[in-house]
Amino acid sequence: KQEVTQIPAALSVPEGENLVLNCSFTDSAIYNLQWFRQDPGKGLTSLLLIQSSQREQTSGRLNASLDKSSGRSTLYIAASQPGDSATYLCATGGGNKLTFGTGTQLKVEL
Amino acid sequence: GAVVSQHPSRVICKSGTSVKIECRSLDFQATTMFWYRQFPKKSLMLMATSNEGSKATYEQGVEKDKFLINHASLTLSTLTVTSAHPEDSSFYICSARDHAGVNFAEAFFGQGTRLTVV
């Protein structure tokens, strides 16, 4: 059974700082890995999707990497802004299902 | 990206009544949709997979008679919480995948429904 863990559970940084969120998974037989953002009381917004054959994906200030052999993915956020404050979730895709991590609650302070 | 619309965003109901939540894919067809439940400060728990034109597949421990799922068209799936009790209060989120789009198998989520049973 796939287990997905995210570290740290919470993170507070000053505006402008670059930061890395970590995601680890136990079963490397995945189809893809997806990073999401969730604002309080809202649904999920897809940020980046990395297929199993890919190493990384970039969108604006976000860069996600995937290392299947070690069961790890990272989400890099450059020049963080207060608007980046949210909970970030990673999820592995195995067939039709997504298995979610526990999330990292990010707060970017002025 | 593709758009998934969920309605209502909030609902308060009395104990013993039933509540229906709708999930629509607005700009793509979804043969499969997914229903999740999220407890406060917890991650998402998959409840069931909704299949267009056939019965839903429920995850272990999820009561199919309590959480009725109907997927009558390629763009609409509904979740009905029957005989709701306070312990059913939670945040419910639906998801769909646009298999025909550029981003193959990327999952898109609705806005979520906050259900409060009083």
Describe this structure in words.
The complex is a heterodimer of chains A (110) and B (118). Chain A has 110 residues and is mainly β. Chain A contains no helices and eleven strands. Chain A has strands at residues 4-7, 10-14, 19-25, 32-38, 44-51, 56-59, 62-67, 72-77, 86-94, 97-100, 104-109. Chain A is globular. The mean pLDDT of chain A is 94. With 118 residues, chain B is mostly beta strands. Chain B has strands spanning 4-7, 10-13, 19-25, 32-38, 44-51, 57-58, 67-73, 76-81, 90-97, 107-109, 113-117. In chain B, the strands form two sheets. In chain B, strands 2, 4, 5, 6, 9, 10 and 11 form a seven-stranded mixed β-sheet that branches. Chain B has a four-stranded antiparallel β-sheet with strand order 1-3-8-7, with no helix packed on it. In chain B, β5 and β6 (57-58) form a beta hairpin. Chains A and B meet through β4, β5, β9 and β10 of A and β5, β9 and β10 of B.
Overall pLDDT confidence of chain B? 89
Give the topology string of chain A: H per helix, E per strand: EEEEEEEEEEE
Radius of gyration of chain A: 13 Å
Helical segment count of chain B: 0
The string of secondary-structure elements of chain B, in order, is EEEEEEEEEEE
| Strand residue percentage of chain B | over 45%
Biggest beta-sheet profile of chain A:
6 strands, mixed
Number of strands of chain A: 11
* Oligomeric nature of the chains: heterodimer
- Class by alpha and beta content of chain A: mainly beta
Unreliable stretches of chain B: none
Globally, the shape of chain A reads globular
Give me the number of helical elements of chain A: 0
Cα-atom radius of gyration of chain B: 14 Å
Please bin the fraction of helical residues of chain B.
under 10%
Distance between the termini of chain B: 37 Å
Range of helix content of chain A: under 10%
Major interchain interface with per-chain residue totals: A-B, 22 and 24 residues
Biggest sheet character of chain B: 7 strands, mixed
Global morphology of chain B:
globular
Low-confidence stretches of chain A are: none
